Amino acid sequence: MEWYAWIVLLWVVYILVQLGRLAFGDADLSLLWKETFGKKPAVLKGQVVWITGASSGIGEHLAYELAQAGCRLVLSARREEELERVKKQCLLRGSIKEEDVLVLPLDMLRCDTHKPAVEHVVNYFKQIDVLVNNAGRTQRGETIRTDVDVQREILELNVLGPISLTTAVLPRMVEQQRGHLVVVSSLASKMGLPMSATYCASKAAVNRWFESVCVEHTTDHIDVTLILPGPVFSDLFEAAFTEQAGRIHGQPAKPTDKRMATARCAELAAVAIANRVSEAWVAQQPYLAMFYLAQYMPDISRW
User: Fold this and answer.
1) Which numeric CATH code is attached to 27-301?
2) Of 199, 287, 292, 296, which is the active-site residue?
3) Are 171 and 117 in contact (CB under 8 A)?
4) For residue 302, is pLDDT > 70?
5) What is the crossing angle of helices 197-216 and 148-155, to 10°?
6) DSSP of 219-258, one letter per residue?
7) What is the pLDDT of residues 174-191, one digit of tens each?
8) Which of 62, 12, 10 is nearest to 229 (CA)?
9) 199 among known catalytic residues
10) Which of 84, 135, 202, 284 has the most CB within a 10 Å radius?
11) What is the distance between the alpha carbons of residues 160 and 145, in angstroms, rounded to a whole number?
12) PANTHER family in the record, alphabetically (predicted)?
């Protein structure tokens, strides 16, 4: 067989392997490659990582992953008692000390508290290496029936909250001449979905904002990682906004749903953070394939 035939054969085998990984994988090909051959979360050991929305769901399990990696943690959410529970688990699971985990209650809607919170973290740890903007809520409601107050609150929580906190953290990272901004966004930012119009818009908006920040601060050695999960088993679905202000969806996801385990999502998120990937897609099939179609063949995806 001629040498060029071998090259063609190897190329075909490579394509088939990648298609197989795509068909059966639970993340984009780049992230799966990093998981196998890239840096492990242990490279983050000793770094100060601030996680919002750390009292449950992806934020909680990401805290466990990073505790095992030896990170120093700032855990923020509104429910202090749940944060204390997560802290105890972090100390049990990770090789870190009591003083390595700071519980800092924080309401993302109260933007006036964000700068004082940053000052508190800097006074405690003297640095902020990674900020994980994870806090947020999803939505279940027809657009035509959804109160404008609900839509405003979604945008304030999912967009203005992370913008406010990040704007407060940025000067410190610029002063340090290093930093890593992580956003737990959503694959819903890649296409419009029914019953979630404002949620989809909020995630698309936050993606573009952080991408712009990354470009502005390239010379300051500040990186941005967008983590885009698909459906995940967490209390996010139950706590979703509805069409009326003050009402939540109140129904948990069904055990039979094709959703990713929260722990697996957090595991992949930790890999993305360790490798400073620009964008990571994390989802079970068939959702992953569906969003690939939406990204690269939008007309077909709308059939």
Assistant:
1) 3.40.50.720
2) 199
3) no
4) no
5) 30
6) GGTEEEEEEEE-SBSSTTTTT-B-SSTT-B---PPPTTS-
7) 999 999 999 999 999 999
8) 62
9) yes
10) 202
11) 24
12) DEHYDROGENASE/REDUCTASE SDR FAMILY MEMBER 7-RELATED, DEHYDROGENASE_REDUCTASE SDR FAMILY MEMBER 7
The answer to whether 135 and 77 are in contact (CB under 8 A) is yes
Residue 47 vs residues 24, 84, 93, 179, 275: alpha-carbon distances, Å: 33, 21, 17, 10, 14
Rounded to whole angstroms, how far apart are CA atoms 263 and 271? 13
Which SS3 state, helix, strand or coil, does residue 199 take? helix
Please report which helix (H) or strand (E) contains residue 131, including its range: strand 130-133
Element (H, E) at 190: none
pLDDT in tens, 137-161: 989 999 999 999 999 999 999 999 9
Can you tell me the distance from the alpha carbon of 135 to that of 64, in angstroms, rounded to the nearest whole number? 16
Structure tokens at 239: 């706590």
248 pLDDT higher than 90? no
Provide the CB-side half-sphere exposure for 92 (13 A, CA).
6
* DSSP 3-state of 66: helix
| Single-letter residue type at 223 | D
Q: Which two tokens stand for residue 53?
A: 């929305």
